[in-house]
Amino acid sequence: MNSIDRSRRRLAVAAAALAGYVDATGFLSANSYFVSFMSGNTTRLGVDLVANPHTAVVPALLILGFVVGVFGGALLAAKAGQQRKFAVLSLVAALLAGAAVAGRSAELELAMALLVLAMGALNNTFQRDGEVSVGLTYMTGALVRFAQGLAAKVLGNGGAGWGSWLMLWLGLALGAVAGAFALLTWPAYALWLPALWALVLALLARRIALN
Description:
It contains 8 helices and 2 strands. By secondary structure, it is mainly α. The protein has one domain: Growth Hormone, Chain: A. Strands 1-2 form a two-stranded antiparallel ribbon. It starts with 5 loop residues before the first helix and ends with a helix. The model has no long low-confidence stretch (mean pLDDT 86).
């Protein structure tokens, strides 16, 4: 976060909020499984393998889908060059729109598959030298960097930029609140909002790349 300018930091926070929103809707729709938090699904996989082996296929497929999403997004990002953010976020918007259509048709399995693909692809939005520079769907690293930066500031050893990592975490947390509220209040329309959200972010990313 510290190595990118303010407009890109805002884009990152908004994208993290998108991830939080989508993960909350998936969590509430699919028996407390995740569509973006693969550490949680890995724990569920381990527990299910011991306690309920017949259900272990669910987290396993979600993890596989996420990996496929990251893989496909990485290929697209590599081909898109300077318009990487626009291309990746456009793909995410299309996948989320597909999930919204599937959800309206009561095709929960298809909707979940498209959601997890979208969240995997989303992590290719911010790259440096072909690797993720800002993780958007997982916040453990962001909280570690926030806490380390805050400690460095208290010790007088720098720590500049710790607030940016805190904002990234807050983006995901507030997005999750919004996703849970939307799904419980307007379940028929809850998945259309993140599709539109991702499209707006794609257009903003294209504008940033052109400036």
